[in-house]
TrEMBL record:
SUPFAM superfamilies: Nucleotide cyclase. It holds the Pfam family Guanylate_cyc. One of its GO terms (cellular component) is guanylate cyclase complex, soluble. It comes from Hemiselmis tepida. This is Guanylate cyclase domain-containing protein.
Length: 135
């Protein structure tokens, strides 16, 4: 929707500001691996590829920080921005794939669960799985 309402350079500046702020949140939380960005989706892995204690707590803290950060940016630029986040704790298959443009890939059932949580989350909220809550 924003793409239809903003000039291309303004939209790219906004997206860059958002992703830069999310990267900063991830640095502050620690043990966050940014897997990829596709369009408006920021995929991160907490506690991998190197395991860490309290990964579920860190992931939840990161998610809440992202919601707060995105809302703050939206208020500052006077553009209504909505974010939905899913957080799940589980296992993934991970590794570098491809040769022309190699990239780090995570896949597996638990990735699908995370994606479903994100889709079911209300705007500007974090939806966590029971597995994450138990951690």
């Amino acid at each position: 929707k924003l793409a239809a309402e903003m000039e291309a350079d303004e939209l790219l500046d906004l997206i860059n500001a958002i992703y830069t702020s999310i990267d900063h949140c991830a640095e502050c939380i620690g043990h966050v691996w940014k897997v990829e960005i596709i369009g408006d989706c920021y995929l991160a892995l907490v506690g991998g590829p190197t395991p860490c204690d309290n990964h579920a707590y860190r992931a939840t803290c990161l998610a809440l920080a992202i919601v707060e950060t995105v809302e703050r940016i939206g208020t500052r630029v006077q553009v209504p921005i909505q974010v939905r986040i899913g957080v799940h704790t589980g296992s993934v298959v991970a590794g570098v794939v491809g040769s022309a443009m190699p990239r780090y890939l995570i896949t597996g059932v638990d990735c699908l669960i995370t994606s479903a949580l994100e889709k079911d989350a209300e705007p500007n909220t974090v939806l966590i799985s029971e597995a994450t809550e138990r951690e």
